[in-house]
Amino acid sequence: MARTAGQPDAAGLVATGRRVIGIEAAALADLAERLPEGFAAAAGLMLAARGRVILSGMGKSGHVARKIAATLASTGTPALYVHPAEASHGDLGMITTEDVVLLLSNSGETPELADLIAYTRRFGIPLIGVAGKADSTLLRAADIALVLPPAPEACSVGLAPTTSTTMTLALGDALAVALMESRAFTPEDFAGLHPGGRLGARLAKVADLMHAGAEMPLVATGLPMGEALLEMTRKGFGVVGVVDASGALVGIVTDGDLRRHMAGLLERRVDEVMTRAPRTIATTALASEALKVMNAGKITTLFCIAPEAPGRPAGILHVHDCLRAGVV
């Protein structure tokens, strides 16, 4: 049973924190220098898998396995975590001969992994093992053995999984990034797998947020301002675009233009009131870039131009569209 500590010693706590991080940092530096020789073969096996990469581990190794599975899946390598105990009660059916199995165990002797190991051997499913002992049951059975270099655990009793789990996690990240780069995984691919939260907002394209088709406030050159005002009011963007006979955007009418031409406004035509050569943004640009342009120009809307149709508006983007999406 844990004993109740007395008054905490702040200096001692800080010293412990620094010591732990130092031990783990040294172990990671050693891992980088002594990367397991099967690393490239393991990455190649995972890259060639026609199915998924199945991760499993027990206890703290299980938590690390879950994280590695999530990292792989989010960077272009389909992956799934299977709990070893659940695997022994039916979840082995989640694993197919098209998959590659990656098992984590610091000792390499985790009994709960026995059924998973046996299943992969029985059906010829490729098995990659990660452990700290080369002669362990797991690594002897594995097709590819990734042996972690020896390093002390960072806790005072040398037993709590600390340094070992940090190294395992780092090795998993290294595999995930190696696969990601081998697949030429792009920011666009990343955005497709991260539509929510800050990551999705940072990678959102103008085309994802803009209003297109009948939502765009557009009028033709030569139109009386009275009709242009009706279109401007109907669409509610505080602006109306002016297009020529070919559909190219030649100008816009904003609230500011209305104020500047207040005298005799309804007797004028849009050509006389509009601002020519307005700022636009490509539909392929990041929404964050569009927001930057709007902030710099102190404007609230941008017409969006598709690269395949230069000069012709494909949509309109309002600053509120960016803010609602979390673009900053």
3D architecture notes:
The protein has 328 residues and is α/β, with parallel strands linked by helices. It has 2 domains: 17-185, 3-Layer(aba) Sandwich (Rossmann fold); 206-324, CBS-domain (Roll), CATH 3.10.580.10. 44% of the residues lie in helices and 16% in strands. The chain contains 15 helices and 12 strands. The strands form 3 sheets. A 5-stranded parallel beta sheet has the order 2-1-3-4-5, with helices on both faces. Strands 6-7-8-9 form a 4-stranded mixed beta sheet. Strand 10 (280-282), helix 14 and strand 11 form a beta-alpha-beta unit. The chain is elongated, with a radius of gyration of 30 Å. The mean pLDDT is 92.
Give a summary of the structure in a few sentences.
This protein is α/β, with parallel strands linked by helices.
Keywords:
328 residues; alpha/beta; Rossmann fold; 2 domains; 5-stranded parallel sheet; 4-stranded mixed sheet
Instruction: Count up the helices.
Output: 15
Write down the domain tally. Answer: 2
**Cα distance, first to last residue?**
49 Å
Structural class: alpha/beta
**Low-confidence runs of at least 5 consecutive residues:** none
* Helix fraction bin: 40-55%
Provide the residue-averaged pLDDT: 92
Task: Determine and state the CATH class of the largest domain.
Answer: Alpha Beta
Topology as H/E string?
A: HHEHEHEHEHEHHHHEHEEHHEEHEEH
CATH-defined fold name of the largest domain:
Rossmann fold
DSSP strand (E) fraction? 15-25%
